[in-house]
Design brief:
mainly alpha, 3-stranded antiparallel β-sheet, two-stranded antiparallel ribbon, 7 strands, 5% strand, disordered N terminus
């Protein structure tokens, strides 16, 4: 037969692979739709093959057998017959009338299609090639930016954790919470690099259908790290709120409660999600955001985002009240500048920017969402480490004290050296 299966899905697969940068996109539903239709067509082909062996069908004239070309299932036809099909439903353009793709059954088999699927179902060829090129460049730029962001954040956070661990005098409850938040940011950065390496390093791999232990483990670890990060962002908000509400708190007991929220809740949630996925939805790479089990991961994240947002609003209100009360004589410009400085410090610490797209589906506003949550989010760990470690007055004071304690020994040796030479 003169069929060419490569003309069908190749272009579509390239397009869908480009889009799969950070998670499963809605385009994967198209691939799953085609796989379902392929299985249905193969069942029909086996039925036709069995039926063709019967004595009544042996006397029929030669023609073309039923065929799956990668996108459509072509029914059997007699020689000289023309057969037409529409684009698959998920790929059909919103136009009237729909474009038909036609093939002729010849004595040598099926002819090539009258129109390529790419042109009939997607775009005009020139326009489509330009769109794919722009889309690829866009996603490559986003991937480069968030890779740099997570790399810079990972390095800065590692130094910050090392500083707090070496300067143990600084490890009060507040800074212990900061350290755990830094560690969660580090894990999140590592999880992104691991996920990219496992899922997207091989560009020939069909991301929509791959199902290996490595990719499932990478996605599970990624979900745990993201949950932990949002949990510790919530802990930061709860701790600041508790300082405002209670004059005296049992800090040791409070810290262990916060630790159970920061690490315990993500662990239990991830284990529950993993068990249910394995038992009831063990398909693909477990990164299907259309699955109902995704809400097991998403609900704790949404709760963290909105609770922190409410705490942010409450703390901002208190800051405004206290700033106005204590700086009555300041000009309005100075007052606004001080308020802006105080509230901006809380935005990366609470992850307030995640509120913008929290209630929207993952496929809505993809481009601005990627820049806000991936690009800005990748630098969040760096920003937090700078503001709450490197620019922390206590940290700077302790480092200066440590450096000064080393200077007298050097100075004493320099001064005493000529004195020893003068002794007879």
């Amino acid at each position: 037969m003169n069929s060419d299966p490569s003309f069908s899905l190749q272009t579509f697969s390239q397009t869908w692979t480009i889009a799969c940068v950070c998670s499963t996109h809605p385009e994967c539903s198209i691939v799953r739709h085609l796989l379902k239709k392929e299985n249905e067509c193969k069942v029909k082909m086996r039925t036709e093959a069995v039926a063709s062996l019967s004595p009544s069908s042996r006397n029929q004239t030669a023609g073309c057998l039923m065929e799956w070309d990668g996108v459509s299932c072509w029914p059997p036809a007699s020689a000289g017959e023309m057969v037409s099909v529409h684009c698959p439903l998920p790929l059909m353009k919103s136009q009237n009338p729909p474009v038909l793709i036609t093939r002729k059954c010849t004595v040598r088999g099926w002819s090539k299609p009258s129109l390529s699927y790419y042109k009939a179902c997607y775009h005009d060829v020139a326009e489509g090639d330009e769109d794919i090129s722009k889309e690829k460049n866009y996603f490559d730029t986003v991937k480069l930016l968030y890779s740099v962001g997570y790399g810079v954040s990972l390095a800065a956070l590692a130094v910050a954790v090392l500083i707090f661990c070496c300067l143990r005098k600084l490890l009060c409850t507040r800074n212990c919470i900061h350290v755990n938040l830094f560690v969660s940011f580090m894990l999140r950065s590592l999880a992104v690099f691991i996920k990219d390496a496992v899922l997207f390093a091989d560009k020939s791999m069909n991301h929509c259908t791959v199902s290996t232990l490595q990719c499932k483990a990478a996605v599970t670890f990624f979900h745990f790290c993201v949950l932990s990060n949002f949990s510790w962002l919530l802990v930061e908000g709860l701790y600041l709120q508790s300082l405002l509400l209670f004059t005296f708190t049992q800090t040791t007991t409070l810290f262990w409660i916060y630790a159970s929220v920061g690490w315990g809740v993500p662990t239990v949630t991830t284990l529950t999600w993993t068990f249910l996925k394995k038992q009831l939805d063990d398909e693909g790479c477990w990164d299907n955001l259309d699955s109902s089990f995704w809400w097991i991961i998403k609900i704790p994240i949404l709760l963290s985002i909105f609770i922190n947002f409410l705490i942010f609003l409450n703390i901002s209100r208190i800051i405004i009240q206290k700033t106005k009360a204590t700086h009555v004589n300041q000009s309005e410009t100075q007052l606004l500048r001080r308020l802006l400085h105080s509230t901006l410090l809380l935005i990366p610490l609470f992850g307030v920017h995640y509120v913008v797209f929290a209630l929207f589906p993952e496929h809505v506003g993809v481009e601005p969402r990627l820049y806000l949550e991936l690009v800005f989010g990748s630098f969040q760990g760096f920003i937090v480490s700078v503001m709450y470690c490197f620019l922390n007055g206590e940290v700077q004071h302790e480092i200066q004290r440590l450096m000064k304690s080393c200077r007298p020994e050097t100075n004493t040796n320099v001064i005493n050296l000529p004195t020893q030479e003068d002794v007879p």
